[in-house]
Amino acid sequence: MATKHEQILNYIEKLSVGSKISVRQVARDLGVSEGTAYRAIKDAENLGYVSTIERVGTVRIEKKDKENIERLTFAEVVNIVEGHVLGGREGLYKTLNKFVIGAMKLEAMMKYIESGSLLIVGNRYEAHKLALENGAAVLITGGFDTSEEVKLLADELELPILSTSYDTFTVASIINRAIYDRLIKKEIMMVEDIIYEQKEVNYLYDYQTIGDWQLLLEKTKHSRFPVVDHQMKLVGVVTSKDVIGKETTISIDKVMTRNPISVLPKTSIASAAHLMVWEGIELLPVVDSYRRLLGVISRQDVLKALQYIQNQPQIGETIDDLILKQFEEYKIDDSVIIKGTVTPQMTNQFGSLSIGPLTSLIKEAAHRVLRKYKKGDLVPENIMIYFIKPIQIENEIEVKAKVIEVSRKFGKIEVEVWHNNKIVGKALMTSQVIER
Questions:
Q1: Mean pLDDT, residues 248-262 taken together
Q2: Under a CB-based contact definition with an 8 Å cutoff, are residues 193 and 209 in contact?
Q3: What range defines the domain where residue 196 resides?
Q4: Based on the domain organization, do 87 and 139 belong to the same domain?
Q5: Is the full-model pTM beyond 0.85?
Q6: Does 323 share its domain with 418?
Q7: Which of 4, 75, 132, 377 has the smallest CB count inside 10 Å?
């Protein structure tokens, strides 16, 4: 039977897009405490079913697929620009396709406005009205209001008209940054991208026997399976090592490994790979927030996903990308050197190279030299910086990496940081190798 928390989530999921939700209403309708209702609504917000807006409340929104994650709802725009809603609350769930800066004459402005767009403009009432009539929402900058006529029109057309205290340039920058961040997130492959493609998940119930395990082994040619209870909640994992030499009538719960390591669908593939290497496991169950089994991923699944990621064009730049853009690579004998200048963005409050960018440079140099020996995917296991001097802004540095030990699944690299022909930093890094 579903828990009260699950019942509330199911209730919210079935609400029509645009519906308003309150803790008190949910508690009254479902006969639960307000504390339980509040926790479930927050969980629904994390799952992307609702959005909470100051002075408006919580609104059921359309859950976006990963393909259009770069699109924002107007409800999300309100939160991003720290604004408030003047009218058209019923349209907050709708999706923003593009935004238009209203820094031109009305006739020229209307050429760019279309249904689903957002006009960012100051206190120009006529522009507010024309935008709404053309199917666009409006965001008024500078903290200005609009006329009652425009507010009524926004309510009638169910198109939000919003206001923020920020100026037009700042608002455009904030929204553009939010879309850019989502583009980067879109590139990051999650565990859910693998498991939702699985047509069938093979598992055993805890009351089944070793004989049932053998039948599943013959059917699938696999030997590792998650174990669930009658509510589909993960309780264990069983492998050939657990059952070898035991009677076929013994129940699975007597031999399985209890409380196995598992991940959520929103775990990144890179994190899952690191966990599998670190813990030495070949099968990783995927569960929801109630530990109900959703699927499994294997080392082979992770490797295919990592190779797919490496073959995809990159849309957005991460912090590591911005750092490495300033550096060039050189190969000398059995070493790799990356050389560049310390930029202002790489420094701390004292104007010295910050430990974060330094660690990124060390990791990148180490992995580049290790790839001369190993062709698999590399997962950092340990970085020890045991010597570092302050490296000032705009100083040119060289990061030299050399492999000192390598095996089939392991690499140890020594990294030195040089400035003006003097060593200013030294580190030792170990990485696990996931062979393809």
A1: 93
A2: no
A3: 192-309
A4: yes
A5: no
A6: yes
A7: 4
